[in-house]
């Protein structure tokens, strides 16, 4: 599993069976290994209903998510709400995750309590999904691949905006974005892989420059919704001139 703000029943059980010493982060998402509840049963729980409503709002109105959905569609990986998103109860330390074995984004309904948090989690996990779509990412065996996607997700999702960092009581200004992205990428790796902190730091540092500067599909670091709207507009117009030649 790749953690967001990080996961497959049958596929997970196979991998866990092979690698008993490393659960690949699935311990944070206990419902991944259970039979899914019926829609009627799930609809009776307020957390699930609220999660579904907030998810729909994000997909319909958030420019970060809208750009990523369009980029994935153009890359041949159309995202469907009922197929590729799942609201589930998770460990208290995570907000969401991307299950590469099922190409499904897990949203932690017991931990996501407000719309802005849902926006960030969905965006973060859609960046993992976009990377999964466009590249041959070895999520389970190559920690550098995981590190690269975590760097990109922290950098492009709004996780490291100045306001979010101030809310975490972190007030550094010089090199703020780079420091925040590095720290959050390391934390995400440690949450889902049984590796040492030194190994996680080494993986992040070795790929940091290339992955920090990989701004696809945004073309810029979107520090706000205004930036994201501009990036979405630019993305929609990206091929217009070539098409008219």
Automatic annotation (TrEMBL):
Lineage: superkingdom: Eukaryota
Pfam families, alphabetized: Peptidase_M76
Region feature Disordered, mapped onto this chain: 1-22
GO cellular component labels: mitochondrion
Protease is among the record's keywords: yes
GO molecular-function terms, A-Z: metal ion binding; metalloendopeptidase activity
Keywords: Hydrolase, Metal-binding, Metalloprotease, Protease
Protein's recorded name: Mitochondrial inner membrane protease ATP23
Source species: Probosciger aterrimus (Palm cockatoo)
Upper taxonomic lineage: Eukaryota, Metazoa, Chordata, Craniata, Vertebrata
